[in-house]
C-alpha cells in the first residue's frame, strides 16, 4: 500500500519541499509580521507631541491614537484562531499584512485626526491577528525538545521591537517628520507579504467553515473601548464623574456578559476550558503582569527622561537601545535554557530580575547618569528574556493539539490586555501621585520651614550677585519690611524657580512610585508561576 502524498501547500508538503531549513524560512516570515506590528505599538509614542501640534489635538483626542491601537490589538487576538481554521495561515497572514500596509500608508498621509485614529485602529487590529499566528506557526514546525529555543526566537520580536521603537521614532521625528514613523515599517511588511506566499502553509482542513462569534466579539470590543476610555479620562474628568463611572459600569456589564456568553456558545472566541489547565492559568497571570511591565516601562522611561531630565526624543529612545541589543543575545540563550530547565524556575528568575530593575528605577532622580539608567533597563530586559520563552512554551505544552490555536490567542490576549490596562494605570498612578506630592510640598512652604527660608536666601543672593537688587534686599517675611520694584522682580523670579523646582521634584516622585509599583507586581506574580511546576510533575 503506497503512502499518500501530502496535500500541496500544507505544512507537511512545505517541509518536504524545502527540507530541514524550512522551519527557519517560516520563522523568518512570521517574525517579519511580528516585528513590524509590535514596533508600531510603541514607535508612535514619541511622535505624539508633534502630531498634536499638526492637527491642534487636545490630550483627550491624542489618547485615542494609543488607546484605539491597544483596544483593537487586544480584541482581535482572539479571532486569530478562527481565521486560521477557516482560511489557513497563508491567507490570514497575507491578508492581515496587506491591511497593515494600507493602514500604515493611511496614517502617514492622514489629512485629519479622524483618519489618523482610524489608521491606528486598523493597525492594531492587524497586529492582534498576526502575533498569535506567528507564535503558533513557529511552535508547529519545531520538535518538542526545541520549542523553547523557538519561543526564544519569537520573543526577540515581541520584546525587541518595543525597545527599539522609541529610538527609531525619535530619530524620525527629530530629523524628518512624524509621518515617517508610519512609513518606517513598510519594507519589512512588504518582505513578509512576499515570503508568506512561499513559506506559509495553507488551510489544514477541508471541512465546513466554523461560524464566527459575532456576539462575543461585540461584547469584547465594548468592554475594551469603554474600559480604556474610562482609565484614560478618569484623571482628567474625575474618577467619580458621571462619564467615568458610566464607562466603568458598562465595562463591568459587558465583561461579565462576554464571559457568560463564551461559556454558553458552541463556538466561543475564548475557550474558557483552557483555564482548567493549572499551567495555562498560572502562565496567564504571569502574562498579564509581563505585558504591564514591558509596555508600562516602555511608556514611563521616555516620558521621565524627557520631562524630568530634559532629554530630546532621540536621546530618550537611545537610553533603551543597549537593552534592545542585549536582548538579541539573551533571547536565544534563554530559549535553549527553556528546553533544559523547568518553566517555573526560568520565569521566577526573570520576574526577580525585572523586579530588581524596577526597584533600582524607583531611585531615579534628575542626576541619574545616562549609562546607569541604560544598565538598569538592560537588567530588566534580561529578566524578560528569561520569562518569555518559558511562558509561551510552558503554557502551550500543557494543551492538547486541538487547543493550540486558541491557547496562543488567549495567551497573547491576556498579555496585551495587561499591557493596555497596565500602561493606563501606571500613567494615571504616576500623575496622581505626583499631584499629591506637589500639594504636600506646597503646604510646607512657609516661613516656619528653615529649608525654604535658606533656599530663598540663596536664590536671592545669587540674583543679587547678578545685579539689579539693592544691597541688603531680601524677601518680605524673611527679614525685610519693604522692597523696591527691582527687588520684587528678583523675588518673583526666585519664587517662580522654587515653584518649578518643587513641581519637578513632585513629578519625579510620582514616576518613582510608578516604577516601585511595577517591582511589587512582578514579585506578586511569582507564586502563580509555580503552578507551571504542577503541570510538569503531572506530566512526569
UniProtKB/TrEMBL annotation:
One of its GO terms (cellular component) is plasma membrane. The chain crosses the membrane at residues 24-48, 64-84, 90-110, 151-173, 180-200, 212-231, 243-261, 281-305, 317-335, 341-363, 370-391, 514-532. Residues 26-537 form the Major facilitator superfamily (MFS) profile domain. NCBIfam families: efflux_EmrB. This is EmrB/QacA subfamily drug resistance transporter. It is a multi-pass membrane protein. Keywords: Cell membrane, Membrane, Transmembrane, Transmembrane helix, Transport. It holds the Pfam family MFS_1. The keyword Lipid biosynthesis does not apply. It is found in: Cell membrane. Belongs to the major facilitator superfamily. EmrB family. It comes from Humitalea rosea. GO terms for molecular function: transmembrane transporter activity.
Amino acid at each position: 500500500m503506497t503512502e499518500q502524498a501530502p496535500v500541496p501547500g500544507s505544512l507537511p508538503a512545505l517541509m518536504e519541499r524545502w527540507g530541514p531549513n524550512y522551519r527557519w524560512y517560516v520563522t523568518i516570515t512570521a517574525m517579519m509580521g511580528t516585528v513590524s506590528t509590535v514596533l508600531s505599538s510603541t514607535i508612535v509614542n514619541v511622535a505624539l507631541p508633534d502630531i498634536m501640534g499638526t492637527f491642534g489635538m487636545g490630550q483627550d483626542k491624542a489618547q485615542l491614537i494609543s488607546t484605539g491601537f491597544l483596544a483593537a490589538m487586544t480584541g482581535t487576538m482572539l479571532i486569530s484562531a478562527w481565521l486560521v481554521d477557516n482560511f489557513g495561515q497563508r491567507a490570514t497572514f497575507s491578508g492581515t499584512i496587506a491591511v497593515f500596509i494600507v493602514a500604515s500608508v493611511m496614517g502617514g498621509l492622514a489629512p485629519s485626526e479622524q483618519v489618523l485614529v482610524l489608521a491606528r485602529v486598523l493597525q492594531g487590529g492587524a497586529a492582534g491577528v498576526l502575533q498569535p499566528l506567528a507564535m503558533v506557526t513557529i511552535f508547529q514546525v519545531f520538535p518538542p525538545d526545541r520549542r523553547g529555543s523557538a519561543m526564544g526566537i519569537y520573543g526577540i520580536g515581541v520584546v525587541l521591537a518595543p525597545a527599539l521603537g522609541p529610538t527609531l521614532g525619535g530619530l524620525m521625528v527629530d530629523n524628518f517628520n512624524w509621518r515617517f514613523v508610519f512609513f518606517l515599517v513598510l519594507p519589512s511588511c512588504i518582505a513578509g507579504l512576499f515570503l508568506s506566499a512561499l513559506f506559509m502553509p495553507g488551510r489544514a482542513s477541508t471541512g465546513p467553515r466554523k461560524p464566527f462569534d459575532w456576539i462575543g466579539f461585540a461584547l469584547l470590543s465594548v468592554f475594551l473601548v469603554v474600559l480604556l476610555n474610562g482609565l484614560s479620562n478618569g484623571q482628567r474628568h474625575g474618577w467619580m464623574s458621571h462619564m467615568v463611572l458610566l464607562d466603568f459600569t458598562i465595562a463591568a456589564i459587558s465583561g461579565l456578559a462576554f464571559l457568560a456568553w463564551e461559556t454558553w456558545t458552541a463556538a466561543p472566541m475564548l475557550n474558557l476550558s483552557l483555564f482548567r489547565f493549572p499551567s495555562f492559568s498560572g502562565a496567564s497571570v504571569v502574562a498579564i503582569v509581563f505585558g504591564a511591565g514591558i509596555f508600562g516601562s516602555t511608556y514611563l522611561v521616555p516620558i521621565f527622561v524627557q520631562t524630568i531630565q530634559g532629554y530630546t526624543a532621540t536621546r530618550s529612545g537611545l537610553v533603551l537601545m543597549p537593552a534592545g541589543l542585549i536582548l538579541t543575545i539573551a533571547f536565544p540563550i534563554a530559549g535553549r535554557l527553556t528546553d533544559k530547565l523547568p518553566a517555573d524556575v526560568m520565569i521566577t528568575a526573570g520576574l526577580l530580575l525585572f523586579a530588581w530593575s524596577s526597584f533600582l528605577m524607583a531611585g531615579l532622580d534628575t542626576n541619574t547618569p545616562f549609562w546607569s539608567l541604560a544598565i538598569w533597563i538592560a537588567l530588566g530586559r534580561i529578566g524578560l528574556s528569561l520569562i518569555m520563552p518559558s511562558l509561551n512554551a510552558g503554557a502551550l505544552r500543557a494543551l492538547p493539539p486541538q487547543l493550540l490555536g486558541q491557547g496562543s490567542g488567549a495567551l497573547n490576549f491576556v498579555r496585551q490586555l495587561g499591557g493596555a490596562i497596565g500602561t493606563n494605570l501606571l500613567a494615571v498612578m504616576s500623575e496622581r501621585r505626583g499631584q499629591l506630592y506637589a500639594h504636600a510640598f506646597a503646604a510646607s512652604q512657609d516661613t516656619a520651614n528653615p529649608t525654604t527660608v535658606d533656599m530663598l536666601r540663596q536664590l536671592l543672593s545669587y540674583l543679587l550677585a547678578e545685579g539689579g537688587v539693592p544691597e541688603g534686599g531680601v524677601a518680605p517675611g524673611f527679614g525685610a519690611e519693604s522692597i523696591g520694584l527691582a527687588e520684587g522682580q528678583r523675588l518673583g523670579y526666585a519664587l517662580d524657580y522654587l515653584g518649578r523646582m518643587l513641581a519637578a521634584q513632585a513629578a519625579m516622585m510620582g514616576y518613582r512610585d510608578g516604577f516601585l509599583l511595577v517591582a511589587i507586581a512582578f514579585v506578586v506574580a511569582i507564586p502563580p508561576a509555580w503552578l507551571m511546576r504542577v503541570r510538569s510533575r503531572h506530566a512526569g
